[in-house]
Design goal:
There is one protein chain. The protein has 1285 residues and is of the alpha+beta class. The chain contains 35 helices and 48 strands. The strands form twelve sheets. It has an eight-stranded parallel barrel, surrounded by four helices. Strands 3-4-5-9-8-7-6 form a seven-stranded antiparallel beta sheet, with no helix packed on it.
Length: 1285
Amino acid sequence: MALRTEWPQLARELALGRLSPQPGLPEGVQRQLQALLTPDAARAAELRAECARGFEGILLRLWPQLEVVVVRMVHGSERLYCNSLLQAECQGLPFYCPFYQAAGALLGVNLWPAEPEPRFLLCPDWAFCEFLPCLANKEPQTVLLDELLEGREYGLVVTAQPGEYRCCTGEVLKVAGFHKQCPMVEPVRRESQTLSVRGEDIPEEQFCQSLCRTLRIWPGARLIDYACVESSLLGDFSGPCAPHYEVFMELQGLRDLSEEQRYKDGSRQRPPHKKKTVSFSSMPHDRKINSTAACISLMLEGCELKKVRSNSRMYSRFFVLDADMRSVRWEPSKKDSEKAKIEIKSVKEVRVGKKTPVLRSNGLSDQFPDECAFSIIYGDNYESLDLVASSADVVSAWVMGLRYLVSYGKHSPEAPGTGHPSLRTSWISSVFDLADLEKSGCIPVSRAVQLIKALNPGMKTSTIELKFKELQKASERPGTEVACDLFVEAYCELCTRPEIFFLLVQFSSNKEYLGVKDLLMFLEVEQGMEGVTEEKCLEIVSKYEPSKEGREKGYLAIDGFTRYLLSADCSIFDPQHRKVCQDMAQPLSHYYISSAHSACLLEDNFWGRSDISGYISALGLGCRSIELVLWDGPEGEPVVYTSPSAASCVPFRAVVGLIDQHAFTASAYPLILCLVVRCSAPQQRLAAQCLRKTLGEKLYLEPPNPVASYLPSPEELKGRILIKGKKLPPTCEDSEGEVSDEEEGWELARRLGQEDREAPEGGGLRRVRLSRELSELVSLCQAVPFQDFESSRRGQRYWEMCSFSEVEAGRFANECPAELVSYNKRFLSRIYPSPMRIDASNMNPQDFWKCGCQMVAMNYQTPGLMMDLNAGWFRQNGACGYVLRPAIMREEVSYFSANAKDSLPGVPAQLLHLKVISGQNLPKPKGSGAKGEVVEPYVCAEIHGIPADCAEHRTKTALQSGDNPIFDESLEFQINLPELAILRFVVLDDDYIGDEFIAQYTIPFECLQPGYRHVPLQSLAGDPLPHATLFVHVAITDRRGGGKGHRRGLAGRRGRRVREYTSTKATGIKAIDEVFRTATQPLREATDLRENVQNALVSFKELCGLTPAANMKQCILTVSTWLLHSDSAPSVILNLAEQYPPMEAQGPIPDLLRKVLTAYETMIQTSRTLIESADAVYGKLIQAQQAGMDFHKELHRIETKEGLRGRKLQKALETFAWNITVLKGQADLLKHAKAEALDNLWQIHNAGQSCGIGRNRSASPEPSRLQAPLEPIPETDGGGDTASC
């Protein structure tokens, strides 16, 4: 097992001839082993190649002369482990147990290594042995060696010579025969290893054999390990002498012991009364829902569902749709048969999930998953029939069928599948006719397969061929040709994705396609698109609908809808971020900068070869900072390399020429060349001449502006190349001089074994010679050694920058994160990897981005999680290599703790609601040939950001799912600093040894698009995987704020949630504290205004049966659906003539509708109060914030006057920054809350007009007119000298 996980490290150690530290290994032994090792690159390469092939039989491949594997005696689960090795790593090798030991004594030897079952010859001189016959009817007496009988079993008693003690070992031996009068024995079992919880004494061997026999009914299942404990599930009901056990098993080849997995090889007959279920699986023999006809067919057949009552009890009932499709009935029931039914015309709504008070009650909420529940809202009193199905597939079928039937209203639909061909069937038939070149009515199977592959790229040929064989066999039409009807059937079954069809039916107002208004509603309500017009919808139909009839009529059928959802127009990545979309006029220090370390290397740091293509790759990915390590070249010209092999160097002249050619191919913004100079002064002059001559006007050589306080912006430096390096002091007038060398340079030298022999006396900074020509090329990025934060605050100039080792920067990030954040507001910092990363692995860039470090140098040649984060992060601003840092990390006066474990002051936390629905065309993991075609994937969703945001959730494993698994699982994350958060999807194959990587995709949180989206999956190296996607739903809402808590059981109490208010803190300076104290009441008012609206929104959405992620338009449309499905005229109207439209009842209304109206009225009133009061409260917060900022320039003088020093001074500075941040943040939150309230009003007007319950229509207010923006809080320009600000 260790070889499977540790082989990369073993290969590195073989190549280097170095033994890494081994925990538990004595130091002396470590030195002896190290002395025996020599570098062996060939053997290391051989090890890598063999491990890449897989691990089955790897021992014989690595050691061809190996003849046998020596093991000790094994029993029970240990034998299972040996069997696992025999079928994997040790394939083709016999196992040999040479000795038999018990109770610390050596008792026998195995003289028959070729036999599979070990037999041992007992040696009389090694220990004195006695034997207890295994008799059940009387107390046994011990016998000696010469009294043993062949075929009998004996317990072993040993008196060992060293201590002369006598003990019963618990070993049971069977006498297999005699060898020259000496008995041969076979170990049978250990009496001590029994299940004996209540005195039953079941031997382990017997239990293991029974378990293995039981598992045979699941073909392909192989037991790897097990553990058994007494079960507490039955409690006292199990009785005093009838124990029950829980068995935990580790299996290979099967992980689901469900009924559906039994006898799946067809060798045994299935149980005759297997319950029928609906599955969305793409397995050939599973029933698949690919149309509303299939849904209604299932409903007509009926199935068992659990009916949930208000007393939290569940009853199994058989539900069926009447033959005339006008009613749903259930049986058995105590009601009259005419009462145990619901008429389709009375159905107001069908809800998926726990969306009613009954299903949300505490007594049921944990008994079944959300996706297995649904509710039918029916009747004039809006009653709910709450149901629980056996699976989410059954729920989807019933919900699809019911919504389809409800959409007909009073009309009587014909039976599904009758009448004229559907839009889709007509199109598929026309495609078939075009392929029928001979016009014979049939086409060859091979042509039909290629045709479906062309229509559905990514589908496997074998899957299509299998489907045709299945349909030909079912229709008794075998042969090499396919008729049109069979082709249509195969296409519909193969190319219909049920989850997308379910979505289409949900929004379609007629049959099985989306009209223009349906599509417009989907784009606005579900996808969050603004300003969508019918013309835009027609463009989408024209672009993606494959049928000519559909394009002419403006219909988007299931195939066009699927194509649209898979297109780049519907990608999860916001297209606005595909181009430069951030403010590029900020100082250079306000941006994260994509940086490369050792870009010339193609592999790791020691044996990896250098190649010029590494620079092309890095620049092509938008890298804006490249490291060049200059060494003396053999031909008098400098070279670039980081490997000790001279053959791997790259001429400096060639590198500069390449940079000149590719510097601005992917990005027009400035490129920074980080020179680490290890060459002599003459070759430095040649390097400087080469840079000037080759790069010419691109080199930025203008001296820094001494009056400015910050670096120029990327916009000002467009198309320029900056040199980062050492600079001679102004006092030096010679052609060359000495400068201090950065630690990075010496670490590189030590790594290459070329450090100077003489170190400076006293342990000071080392000195190197620098030519004036190279020094003059350095302008805005002058490298200086870092001393401490106080020295930098007082003496460092804005054009000077420091480099930190990974270890040093990590220490600062943990011990003084606030000071590191403050330092990075004015100065650039570069973080480089530790020289201990000889394998060119990468550090986690998030550890340093959270502290504002701009340049985190990455090994671009090493794929994995860290490079995924880096590549994904820099994709958000047009992949230009620059990303603007969060405002809280840029503002001159702000409080930010990089290691915050909770929400930040003034930063609105958000909730990410992520539903992972399905996967498409997932590839097999590399090196997984032993598993055959079986891929059992699951999805991990990871959030990377500040510590408070870092989280990981995973879906369930999709068992036996093929390439297109259904997950249908909801995940939720709280994001406290959205601007620094990254979402990473990882698809893994659930494997018993180690989960294997399948694919990944990494995206900044700010780039997420809401709604139903496809995630384009990538390989470990970041390359796109053709047609491999995840289908997800994304919703982003504000953090939970004041929703009513559900009652917990009968004893639950209603308690008022204590509202938390953000307040300012005391600085210890009276005049400043008095200013901040004036903001106490406005802060409370701002919180109350926001929380009241949030509480009202949550209550209204709950009563509408929607989640907190729903928008206001969805709420109004839901209410209108209830009303419009009534036989009478709408009993509630929206008065759209008013700015705050009331929802007015027209006569008596049911209790549920009355509660909805009350919640709506509360929401409107709280929104009105917020909108009308926000400006005044906002002004008070602004006034207090600006009054506080007036003290900023005089802060140090005031603190000196107050006598604050040391820790008290630092605390006062931090508190001042905290207060300013709180005031600005709370004002921003109030501004955003007002904008959202205005947007809700606009959605109410828009939805009321479109759904038919609006009256007295006035012109719908434009969002831009409603959302009159509050004045933004100004940022103070200029540099500050406050340590924490």
